[in-house]
Amino acid sequence: MKAIDWQKTLQEQRDKYGKVVFTVTELSNISSLDAKSLKVSLSRLIDHGIIQRYTKGRYGMPGAVMIADMVSSIDPVAYITGMYALYQHQLITQVPTEISCFTNHRHNRSRVRVTALGRIVFVCVTSSIYSYPQENVVVSPEQALSDFVYLCRKRGVCPSDIVTFRNLRRLDLDILHTCLKKYPATVKREIEKLFQWFDGGTLP
């Protein structure tokens, strides 16, 4: 395939199917190239800025892949939560240095994936904690806060020592209260402290 054919094919995959991340096997299938020929083509296409290597075994058009796309490609049952989700919801001021993802799969040695979009960390949690969001790969602000505090508790650190919270009044306390039912009681107590420090409020 010529460079222009690659561009057309990848754009077509994006427009028709919403697919932006490709494995080596998928690229081989859509190009009908064997492994050796594909390796040569990929090197050339990357040099010319037509394809970008986002992480080991994952490719896509430059600028076309978002964090959510990358996470779903690596682990279809993982979702984005914790500090990164809190920042996306404008509930903390610090820019995250990694993207925390909860999953019910064990990743063992590949638990941490360094990508062109950031450092993704997959955390395998129990079935009682695992809760894939219905509408987005990024969880709600209420779930993000609960998961962040849960992680902090597991690591033995205080949430307010790591980040500066803001806009906590935007949280839906009914949703938060329902969400917290699946977490240890220590998580709820820690979040109650955060609300007391923030504006003197308490959870329902």
What does the secondary structure layout of this molecule look like, with pairings?
Elements: H1 3-17, H2 24-31, H3 35-47, E1 52-55, E2 58-60, H4 67-74, E3 79-81, H5 82-88, E4 99-103, E5 112-115, E6 118-124, H6 141-155, H7 159-162, H8 173-180, H9 185-199
Parallel strand pairs: 4-6
Antiparallel strand pairs: 1-2, 3-4, 5-6
Helix pairs in contact: 5-6, 6-9
Radius of gyration: 20 Å
Helix content: 40-55%
**SSE run:** HHHEEHEHEEEHHHH
Helix/strand-derived class?
alpha+beta
Tell me the number of helical segments per DSSP (H or I, 4 or more residues long). Answer: 9
Largest sheet: 4 strands, mixed
Kindly give the count of domains: 2
Query: Separation of termini?
Result: 61 Å
Task: Write out the strand line-up for the largest beta sheet, numbering strands in chain order.
Answer: 3-4-6-5
Question: What fraction of residues sit in β-strands?
Answer: 5-15%
Low-confidence stretches: none
User: How many β strands by DSSP?
Assistant: 6
- Overall residue-averaged pLDDT value: 91
Task: Tell the overall outline.
Answer: elongated
Write structural notes for this entry.
- The protein has 204 residues and is an alpha+beta fold.
- It folds into 2 domains: 63 residues, Arc Repressor Mutant, subunit A (Orthogonal Bundle), CATH 1.10.10.10; 131 residues, no CATH class.
- It has 9 helices and 6 strands.
- The chain has a 4-stranded mixed β-sheet with strand order 3-4-6-5. A two-stranded antiparallel sheet has the order 1-2.
- β1 and β2 form a beta hairpin.
- α5 packs antiparallel against α6 and α6 crosses α9.
- It is elongated, with a radius of gyration of 20 Å.
